[in-house]
Every structure is written in C-alpha cells, then in structure tokens.
Amino acid sequence: MTEPRLGNSRNVTPPALSAAAAIAVDRATTEFRRGQPVLILGSQGACLAAAAETVAVASLRRLRQASPPLLVLTGRRAAVLGLAATAAPASVANPITQDERPFLANLPAGADAEAVLRLADPTAVAAALPPTTQPPHFPDELATASIHLAKLARLLPAAVVSALPARAADEHLRVAAQEGLLAVWAGDVAAYETTAAVSLEPVGEARVPLEGAEDARIVAFRPSDGSTEHLAIVIGQPDPAKPVLARLHSECFTGDLLGSLRCDCGEQLRGAIAEIARQGGGILLYLAQEGRGIGLVNKLRAYRLQDQGADTADANEQLGFEADERIYLAAAEMLRRLGFKTVRLMTNNPDKVTGLERLGIAVAERVPLVIPANRFNRDYLTTKAQKFGHMF
Ligand SMILES: Nc1nc2c(ncn2[C@@H]2O[C@H](COP(=O)(O)OP(=O)(O)OP(=O)(O)O)[C@@H](O)[C@H]2O)c(=O)[nH]1
Ligand SMILES: [Zn+2]
To answer: CA-CA distances (angstroms) from residue 171 to 67, 164, 182, 270?
Structure first.
C-alpha cells in the first residue's frame, strides 16, 4: 500500500495582496486563456510568458523576438516525460517535493504552437519528442509564476517563457504598455489564489426548500477575483454555540448534475443533505473546486488517462498537477462568516480535517459519509483509500 499523501501545504493563512495587484493577476489569467503573452516581473529578472495549451502563433513569434523560448513544465509532468527523476515523496520534514518545482527545457528549434501543446498534454496524439538539453539559467520565481497563471486559468500547468534582457522594471513596464501587453509581478501571482479565497463577500441569499430538507437557504459568497461563487446551504437553524454538522462538498458537474457513476459525488451530495436534515440541521458548503481543483476540462483529460490504466491520483500527476489541488481557505472563511467556529465534519477525507483545523476551524468529530461502490467507481474508491488515506 502506498503511503497516504500529506495534506495540502497551501492551507495556511495567506499574505495580503492589494486590489490593483489582484486585478492585474486576474487579467493576466484571461490573457493566458486567450493565448496572449504576458510580462512577468520578478526580483531576479523579467520574462514574457504564454500558456502552453493556448499559445497563439503570433505570441510564440513575439516570445522568440525576446530570446529563445523555454518550455516550463511541473516537475511531475517532466518526470512522466522521462526528463526529470521523480523525487522522494513529501514528508512531514520536507513538505515540498522536487516534483512541485518547475522544470525548464529548451523548446526544440522550429517547434510550433501545436508542438508546444503536445509536450504539455499527455492526452494529445503522438506527443513530439521531448527536448533533452538543459536550458540556461532561468529564475525559478518567474517559471513558477507562469505555471501558477496557467493553473489559475484552469489550463494545463505548462507555459512557454522567454527571458528579457536585464532592465529596470519601469523600462519593462513602459515597453509592455506600448505593445499592449499586460504585466504582473511574480510575487503577486503567488499570493493571488489565497488572497482571493479569503476576500469573500455574501452577495445573494434565498430560501430554497430541498427534497428531504425543506427548511433550507442558500447563501452565495463571491471571491474578490470575480471567480465562481461558493455556496453555503444552511439547513434548519444550526446553533453557532454548538459544533455544527458540516459537509464540504467539492463541485462535480459530472457526478452532482449528471449522476455519473465514475465517482460517488452525486450520491454523497444528496446523502449529506438528507443526513443533515435528519440530524436537525447543519451546513453544506458547495465549493467551486471542480475536479479536486483542476477544473472540468482537465478532469475530463484525467478520465481519459484513467481509461488508459492510470489511477485517479496518477492521472492528475501525468497532467502535471498535484493529485489534489484543493485548498480549504474559502470553506473556513465561509464558516467564520456564518458564525461557526467548530464543526462535526462529514467526510472520509483526512485532508479536509487537517486543512480546516490549520485554518482555525475546530473539528470536534469526523462523521463518516460512505456510499456503496458500483462497478464503475470501485477502483476510484480503492485509490482514494490507498493513496489519499480516505477512511471507508
Ligand atoms: N481530478 C479528478 N477529480 C475527480 C475525479 N473524480 C472525482 N473528482 C473530483 O473530486 C472531488 C470530490 O469531492 P468531495 O467528495 O468533496 O471530496 P473527497 O475528497 O471525495 O472527500 P469526502 O467525500 O469528503 O470524503 C470533486 O471535485 C470531483 O469533481 C478524478 O478522477 N479526477
Ligand atoms: Zn464526482
């Protein structure tokens, strides 16, 4: 049996980020989705970067004008391609593995936008030969920021970057403004996800009687980055002075809405609502973190890899992601905003318990939520127990 993974090390209280910086990062993710290059500034230099998945022909040309482009992959993706050795798994002493560091490779001469995508996407047909030579030195913080931007844009975690000559930041910014390129600071990109997660505002609330839980209301919380709202479904009138029965449910379009049999989400969602109502009230947080935080499109790619034999954790890693990319900052913040400091957490996932506790929400008790396996999700549930430490 494989060692259970450690909880997500990003479940810590975040540094502050100004509204202007958050907006710049937000806009940069949109540019990544559109295949446009972005200027990334750091303490050790500057670069132009574009997402590997979407990079437009003109963007690649613009990058080449600056300097020979490099491909940035996550350590995990590089290991899958045989470009980097897989490092030892994370341990309590060393929670950051080599796999989480960016891996840089020279882009093969003449590689076009399609070849870049093939290097980043394990589900693409006939992946091009990977580059073999080690690239020149490139600042880690810029490479990491380019991967973060791709993840924030819900794209494959890979980018192309071109180093810019050493100049004052103002000079880079002036040139970028002339060309209409957006600019971000690497440090702001690093702080963005966690800042957005805690700056939530309740923006809408209504009574919505649910089947089996007629006394229910939904409160929508909007993150400051304008991304998808998280929903709190409050059933009955839970007493904030007592531990509240709570469920953190990560969005699953396929399971929750379509009744997919590949996972247990749909049944867990309805089962949790019914159980909370049966116990006299509580809260279900419906968190916008589809596919364990990699997004629906990447989850579909992960399913395709699973159909070729990978398990649910390996498939994420082959795509270049962590096996679980979720953070529970938004969940902890919503509980606080609703007045709850202690929960009886309905979950089988130990990461949710440690994640919430690290973020200042006490977990008085873990309440199991077990759904019988079917022939399509049996392997998935076994992997959850063996690799993620789920307690069934
Ligand atoms: N990347 C990926 N995500 C998946 C896969 N199958 C299901 N998911 C996602 O996994 C998440 C499951 O969420 P939860 O049920 O809240 O969490 P859990 O980790 O199973 O923990 P508990 O149900 O609380 O025990 C959802 O976001 C699903 O979309 C898969 O094969 N790959
Ligand atoms: Zn699901």
So the answer is: 17, 11, 14, 56
Q: Which atom of ligand 1 is nearest to the CA of 316?
A: 1
ipTM associated with this complex: 0.98
Residue 326 bears catalytic tag: yes
CA distance 46 to 168: 10
Residues 177 and 213 both lie in one domain: no
Question: End of a domain among 193, 220, 237?
Answer: 193
The CATH number given to whatever domain includes residue 378 is 3.40.50.10990
Give the pLDDT confidence score for residue 347 in this predicted structure. Answer: 97
Low-confidence ranges of the chain (pLDDT < 50): 1-7, 87-98
For residue 377, report the distance from its CA to the centre of ligand 2, in Å. Answer: 10
What is the per-residue pLDDT across 329-340, written as a single tens digit (0 to 9) for each? 999 999 999 999
Shared domain check, 213 and 333? yes
Q: What digits encode the pLDDT tens for the residues 354-381?
A: 999 999 999 999 999 988 999 999 999 8
3-state secondary structure labels for all residues of 10-62? CCCCCCCCCHHHHHHHHHHHHHHHCCCCEEEEECCEEEEEEECCCCCHHHHHH
CA of 100 to the centre of ligand 2 (A): 25
- For the entire predicted model, the pTM comes to 0.88
> Rounded to 5 degrees, what angle do the CA atoms 279, 207, 348 make?
40
With vertex at residue 230, the alpha carbon angle to CA 229 and CA 234, rounded to the nearest 5 degrees, is 130
Q: Is the CB of 47 under 6 A from ligand 1?
A: no
Which numbered atom of ligand 1 lies nearest the CA of 254? 29
